[in-house]
Every structure is written in C-alpha cells, then in structure tokens.
Amino acid sequence: MCFHEHVHGNQEKMGRIFSVNLEGKIYSCKHCRTHVALMDDIVSKSFHCRHGKAYLFSKVVNVTVGTKEERMMMTGLHTVADIFCVRCGSIVGWTYETAHQKDQKYKEGKSVLERYKISGPDGSNYWASHEAHVGGSDAEDV
C-alpha cells in the first residue's frame, strides 16, 4: 500500500512553527511578513471581497485551514474554508473546497487572498477602499 503525506507548508515541532520560504515575487502576511504565495501562482486578479480587491491563487503556503462551511457568494453557492497565517493567526482569505455550479468548478482547490491582508512583492500594502463591496465576497469582474 502506497502512502503519500500531504504537507501544507507548516509543521509544528516542539512548539516551534516551521514555514516555507518562497523565492521570487512573493506575497506575504501584512502583519508578520510570513510568505504566503508567489506572483506566478495568481490565476485571477479580478476578485473582490468585502474590503476591496482579492486575488485567486492556484497555490498558497504557510496557512492553516479553518472549518468548511457553505457560503452563498456573488457567483453562487460554494463550500469554503477561511485560511489563516500559520505564524500570527491572521485571516488572509479563503479556500474553495467545492463549487456547486459547473461554471465555477475552476475555483476548486484554489485560494483567494484578500489584498488588504497581504503585502505585495514590492513590499506595498493595499488599503481597503471606502467604496469597497459591502455585501458578500467572491464577486468577479468578468
């Protein structure tokens, strides 16, 4: 029987958290600078959340995944889980477990990072706009 262990980039050993350090153009947690994603892994920059812009990534690291829940979003019903920085515990976005509409299936297994929660590759921060979308999350400019 073959067995593969899936590691999400974070392991705790004797109380110390080990995180993956990425190389390239990196997005990091705004609060503690822990690496969370690479610019090369952006699938879409046209997402929005309650606080403004959000980016869809094919892969994120150094996050813990919260409880799965059903959420009605702008693009329909999805099973999602919030994701948190492994080092400081700040919420940085959410991950898609299941999309219930066929045209939304491409989101499954991908994660959204809220732009105001992360620092960009050049160290820049995005500040939430007062005109930001106030309703649900997940709106896309198509």
TrEMBL record:
In the record, what terms sit under GO molecular function?
metal ion binding
Per UniProt, the keywords (alphabetical) are: Metal-binding, Zinc
Pfam families given for it? Yippee-Mis18 (PF03226)
- Region annotation (Disordered) maps to 120-142
The Yippee domain covers 25-122
State the family named in the UniProt similarity comment for this chain. Belongs to the yippee family.
- Matches recorded under PANTHER family: PROTEIN YIPPEE-LIKE CG15309-RELATED
Q: What is this protein called?
A: Protein yippee-like
Q: Which organism is it from?
A: Escallonia herrerae
